[in-house]
Amino acid sequence: MSRLPLGTIILVTLLFLVSFGLAHRLLDRMRLSDKGALAVLGALIVGSFIDIPLTRGNILVSLNVGGALVPVGLAGYLLYKAGTTKEWVRAIVATIVTAGAIYFLGSVLMQGDPRDRMTLLDPLYVYPLVGGLTAYLLGRSRRSAFVAATLGVLSQDFIHLFWLRSTGIPGTVNIGGAGAFDSIVIAGLVAVLLAEILGETRERLQGGPATRNRDPELLQHLNSDLKIEGKAGNEEKKEGEDHGEEHF
User: Fold this and answer.
1) CB neighbourhood size of 210 (10 A)
2) Domain of residue 147, residue span
3) Which residues contact residue 42 at a Cβ distance below 8 angstroms, ignoring those fewer than 6 apart?
4) Are 23 and 135 a contacting pair, CB within 8 Å?
């Protein structure tokens, strides 16, 4: 009996969390509705089992729907929904730097006999962890961090394909598939969680989002989020008071 990939297990877990409304606030910050998130998670899971052959010959190239097409489409949507042009540019820069960091890690630090490496983690986990951390530090926002992490990891398949074509060495490249799918999912999750946990902690410590030298358009989005959360909290409070009156 074959074992489910780690990325698929994570996505199924997220599917249940979203279904029970346990990620509503985070999805709001990502500009995703519950239904939209469920559709994306479903597409990632189903698409992970679909490979589209692209080229044959010395270099076999295929494209995984769940690991390549869906993440790229989601990244494009999040960039479209970005609060400001500055955030859009920051996401692109973070993607490039994240891709470079992962490439450096793989081509320099992770070469040689695995038994000689001074690491306690498998490269499957090292790459997405480094990618997620780098993406968060540069992207900062939840959307930018996710875009940089997922596209940064995915870019490694394109770099590998370019290397094979430039050297003429035969090989196989499954863009977004195989172990890359797990790495993409883990990297995106790590980046978003870091942005959510550390970003939320920072905002609470400073009494709310920083407003100095911030783009007015971005502040408008942040204030919109706060008004929505405050309105929801007031409605819950009112509902609780109504229930209390009924008990009397």
Assistant:
1) 12
2) 51-209
3) 15
4) no
